[in-house]
Amino acid sequence: MAEQNTEAKLKILLKQEKIQLWNPPYTDEQNQPGTQHMKELVERYVPMLLLPEDEVGGALESIRVQALKRGNRNKTFRETNVATLELLLPRDTKKDPKMKNFLETRLDVLVQEVVDRIGDEYGLKYIKLILNGKTLCADQRLDQQGVKNHSKMMVLKVSDAEWKQQLSEEEEKKKNDNESIQRTQRGFQILSERDGSEDPHTAPFLEIADQKGNPLNIPPKEKKALILAMGLHEKGRSLMKRKQHDNALCHLLQADQQFSKCGSALLSSVDNFAVLQLDIVWCYRALEALSCLEDGRSRLQRAEECFLQCYGQQQQRLMMIKGNTGREEVLFLRLYLLQSLLSYLEGNDAQARQQLSKVESLYGRLALDSDKMAQLMSLGFTEREARLGLRACQGNLEEAAIHISNQRQERDELKDRERTKRRRRMEAISTLTGFGFSRRDAAKALHHADGDVDAAYGMLLDGQTAQTNNNTEEPISAEKLEQLMYLGFEWAVSEAALRLTGGDVQSATQLLLENRGVLSPELLSVSPPSTSSSSSSPSPEEPSTSSNSTENQELVNDVLKDISRHEEDYLDLTLEEESQLIATMKTYLSRGSTHTV
């Protein structure tokens, strides 16, 4: 990292003085350095940079050699159309961390061909290529996706080597990260389609809410993309916590693609997009891929702009919504820290110090007293509640305890309102099913009638005059359904669970708890068969297979386990990693000798 900083500073000076090291008198006819002139440059720049002669000399020679090689590669590309790409390999693949890795290839070849070559040369089985934060499609050509001569491409492993060794070939195929992303995306797609269905109130297993927890009204198309984006982001964050940054970055970049399908107005009203940009650059840092400067810098710029739009210039909007800004300050700490790091790598030490000063100021406010944490936890609060509460109240113990209690009460009141809403809806649906209509059709009609039972009944009569209920199953007791509803489960999953458990409330409750309140779409659609042509229940000729049902259930359950149950989990940073990076940055910015990463 120090070498990159030194070279960046020297390139700025060389550019200002219009010095071209690859030309005479700095390079002779044999491409060797012009010793005397190079020595004079070193003597001129040492007092300007306050660095040792050997370090400045080594950096100048490195710049000169790189420029010569770049010129030769340009000539090769002009004459043969063979481009040279710089590969940013996984850390455990590099033989020499300081040595750069290059690949020569034509640009009119498929990405898959390059993937195979890299895999063979470096012993990597499952990899993805990333250019400027975007995953290259294997079945498209390099030049069709913006790859040019001298492009830098990240090489990401998408499966864990040690993990694969412990698995059988069949299990390995199921568990490799490539399939993991597909499973994650499919799982959230099931949930997003279910959530954006004709009757979103019957099964809102994933709801998009504002910062107070109130559901937001979003057009179905954007809502689906947003749920996919947020789901993939949650999965990526879960992998980041487990230090699986390669796989995490794959998921985060997939989330970024989904966010791009949402309107700018929506993205400016939620902070998820900004947090995602921070997480992507944080992964770049963890993977030591900060040579992706251009992409990292633009992402941090987007994050900062989005925070300002969401929170207000002085965070006044955030103050109005939440009453404090303490918890969100961890996001600005990470933003300024990453900006400081990128400025340092670009050779701008002054700007790096300025940003780091802001970071240290924030860190001083956000670092928590362990005794206060222990006192709050002794009162029955969780570690997360204690951390977030203290930050919200600037470290005041008494205020934090009151704040956490108030938050709990607000959440309980919100749950009560949701239960009341669901209970009333269930009662209305039961009223309509009492007239012989199926639950599915009753729910749809009630949704279109905005909860008006009489209007919904009229709609059902108009559209289904011949409607009859031919169901031979025993009806589920309204009392049993109501018991599950009071526990917070939706009526659709409650009914399905009761049918699966023969009407036993305790067994149904256990089933729903084990599956986090989610059953497969096929199980959720269990209802009296309808003669209505609008019904989407499987017909006798096209039965739903148990294998599909099980697979969908596994997909949904798999992705839901990575969704935090706490709405402010993304703000719950211990700041341990940040503290280490702050110390590293302080060392680099005050250095008088060489340092290596």
Describe this structure in words.
- With 597 residues, this protein is mainly alpha-helical.
- Among the domains are: 1-79, no CATH class; 81-157, Ubiquitin-like (UB roll) (Roll), CATH 3.10.20; 173-285 and 299-312, no CATH class; 477-527.
- The chain has helices at residues 2-16, 35-49, 53-80, 111-122, 161-165, 169-175, 177-195, 220-241, 245-259, 264-267, 272-286, 293-311, 316-322, 329-345, 349-366, 370-378, 383-392, 397-433, 439-448, 453-463, 478-486, 491-500, 505-514, 521-524, 546-560, 576-589; strands spanning 82-88, 101-106, 127-131, 134-135, 152-157.
- Helix 18 crosses helix 19.
- The radius of gyration is 30 Å and the shape is elongated.
- Residues 161-170, 195-205, 465-473, 521-548 and 592-597 have low confidence and may be disordered.
Please give the structural blueprint.
Elements: H1 2-16, H2 35-49, H3 53-80, E1 82-88, E2 101-106, H4 111-122, E3 127-131, E4 134-135, E5 152-157, H5 161-165, H6 169-175, H7 177-195, H8 220-241, H9 245-259, H10 264-267, H11 272-286, H12 293-311, H13 316-322, H14 329-345, H15 349-366, H16 370-378, H17 383-392, H18 397-433, H19 439-448, H20 453-463, H21 478-486, H22 491-500, H23 505-514, H24 521-524, H25 546-560, H26 576-589
Helix pairs in contact: 1-3, 2-3, 7-8, 7-25, 8-9, 8-11, 9-11, 11-12, 11-14, 12-14, 14-15, 14-26, 15-26, 16-17, 17-18, 18-19, 18-21, 19-20, 21-22, 22-23
